[in-house]
Amino acid sequence: MEVTRENFQEVLTELDEVLKNASFLAIDGEFTGLNSGPEATAFDTPAQYYQKLRTGSMNFLLVQFGLSVFTHDKWDNKYSQRSYNFYVFPKPFDRSSTDCRFMCQASSIAFLVSQGFDFNKLFKSGIPYLTKAGEEKLQKKIEDRHKLRDNGNYDIIPIPENDKAQMEEICSRLEDFVKSEDESYVLDRYNAFIRRLIHQEVQLRWPDKIRLENKIENGNCVVIAYKTGNKEEEAQREKERREKEKQDIQQAVGLSALLQKIADSGKLIVGHNMLLDLCHIINQFFGPLPESYTEFKSLVHGLFPKLIDTKIISQSAQFNQSVPSILNQLFEALQCSPYSLPTTEDIEDRSYSLKEDKSHEAGYDAYMTGLCFIALSNRLGALQTPEVRPVLADSRLLAPYLNKLCIAKLKDYPHINLVGNDPNPCRDHIFHVTFPKQWRINDLTQLFNPYGGAYVAWLTDTTAYAALHKKDQVSAVVKNLLKGSSKLFSLKRYKDHQASVESENSQPKLDRKRKISEDGESSPTKVEAGQGEGANDVDVDEAAPLHPSTAGATKTQQQSNEGWEVASGKRRRKRIRTQGTERTDAR
Asked: Start and end of every Poly(A)-specific ribonuclease RNA-binding domain (predicted)?
């Protein structure tokens, strides 16, 4: 079901009962971009990966939120599903509200357009939202307005000499209005300061004869004067005004109210490769992400105590790489023996159908995720002796996957653990290498060939991580390369490099302003091809052929000290590419 600002409140009320009876919820999101900062590398720590998400991805917006609610009927042993596709856009509550700025990544916008995303609908009818702090600020603003209106404790603003003639002319017209038989009078358009003075003068001169209201007409704020009624009539008007303000607050809170209901429900929430979705949900609808990785894990678990990532299940040993881990491919694979997708009872006007593919629409992707979860869960049950069927959301078979989130770009970290210590893979075979800018992959190949080759994760133009294929060669590398003298390159043990990075990060730093291009416009985004796992990484095998003609080649492009290339008048960071362009958020 498509949900916009026009029908959101109706759907929100409906979901009260739907969420209460749900067995589990599946979610998904679509964004205006993925990353504007440094890319994650294969051997980052989970904390470093989180920091790159927090600083490089949160300036983009979640513009579509998908929710699929699955409810199991134990008598029919069948699920029903209701799916919702919410358009999300931070339209300001009023002219004094914060006007949100956000980033877009051209490749992400182009991809959404190619999938039929309706940006006109987003901007015109997207559902607004407020964080808890934003809601409290708006509530206080309205309460302060009530106190002023009830007590009449307005601070008197002296009328500037230049505005006195205009104010007298306005008051003269209002005096004529009081004497007339008209019930209302629309004043001309004035700036905010003059409007404030008009309200002040009416309160001082005609407190019991005129009431004023500000209204937006054709995008402009106008002041309308009404003659006051008797005491009962004015009390009723005030009651209606406050009820309208209450409704306005509800509309301004918007989708945040739904996310709070989901959090309060305590239901199992299922996603596919859902770490980025969760970061955006928390940052956009609850409050800024904490700097501390440990605090982040605690915050996520506090809001959503039961999470399962279907990518974690699909990559687990029980499936032995028998199914792909990208959502669309997984969905197709689970339709073939020995797997089977469940048959669900569809609710009219509230459900998707397998007959119509709407991939990359957030609601449909949430629906697919829910079906994949049921199919994977039932397969886990079928592998047991005796067979367990059905495997429901609270089954003990799912306990190993609970509250673990996929962190796919890290080569040796299977997941992060929200309720305990993360896995701690041994990285003693990994070295940090510093080398000249002129070096290419063949130079690193030649360096590690005698030791069985290495998996290289490129960091900058002059640094990389190298993970030895043969871990028994660590001592030889330490003896010959790390301790050996060379003016061309230097090596550090991984743990020593991490210690120096942590020491550097613990030092206070001055804020760095965003770079501004020569034409005065900031260029905070960049289009990256092949940002999937290993896009900047190279597997250097000991049998890899050498190409002397390219080894040690120098760059022909102009380059700054920070590794930026000048190309077509724009600056972009040079990347080592070893595979073709693909969608960067493949799940």
From this structure: 420-499
Q: Tens digit of pLDDT for each residue in 121-150?
A: 999 999 999 999 998 888 888 887 777 666
- In the sheet with 220-227, reading across from the earlier edge strand, the strands are 184-186, 220-227, 210-217
- Domains of the chain by range and CATH? 2-129+255-417 (3.30.420.10), 136-253 (3.30.1370.50), 430-573 (3.30.70.330)
- Looking from the CA of 265 toward its CB, the CA atoms found within 13 Å total 23
**Token pair of 419 as six digits:** 């309720």
Residue 568 pLDDT > 50: no
SS (H, E, C) 339-379: CCCCCEEECCCCCCCCCCCCCCCHHHHHHHHHHHHHHHHHH
Taking only the tens place, the pLDDT of each residue in 501-521 is 888 877 765 544 443 333 444
Nearest partner of 370 among 327, 404, 321, 326, judged by Cα: 327
For residue 165, the model assigns a pLDDT of: 94
DSSP letters of 445-503?
Answer: HHHHGGGTEEEEEE-SSSEEEEEESSGGGHHHHIIIIISS--SS-EEEEHHHHHHHHHH
Give the three-class secondary structure for 318. Answer: helix
Strand partners, 404: 417
Examine residue 450 and say whether the peptide bond preceding it is cis (omega within 30 degrees of 0). no
CA dihedral of 108, 109, 110, 113, whole degrees rounded to 10:
120
What is residue 129's DSSP assignment? B
Q: Which two tokens stand for residue 571?
A: 């600056």
2 vs 33: CA distance, rounded Å: 22
C-alpha separations of 427 from 24, 224, 275, 435, 455 in Å:
38, 71, 24, 21, 12
CB 61 within 8 A of CB 484: no
Look at residue 298 and tell me whether its pLDDT is greater than 90. yes
* Residue 44, both tokens: 């980052």
Q: 425: which 2 tokens?
A: 């893979």
Pairwise CA distance, residues 377 & 495, whole Å: 39
Tokens at residue 390, please? 């059905």
Evaluate whether 11 touches 1 at the Cβ level (below 8 Å). Answer: yes
pTM to 2 decimal places: 0.80
Other C-beta atoms closer than 10 Å to the C-beta of 331 total 23
- Mean pLDDT (whole number) for 274-282: 98
Backbone angles phi, psi at 238, to 5 degrees: -65, -40
Residue with tokens 């759907």: 11
Q: What is the rounded CA–CA span in Å between residue 130 and residue 90?
A: 8
3-class secondary-structure state, position 565: strand
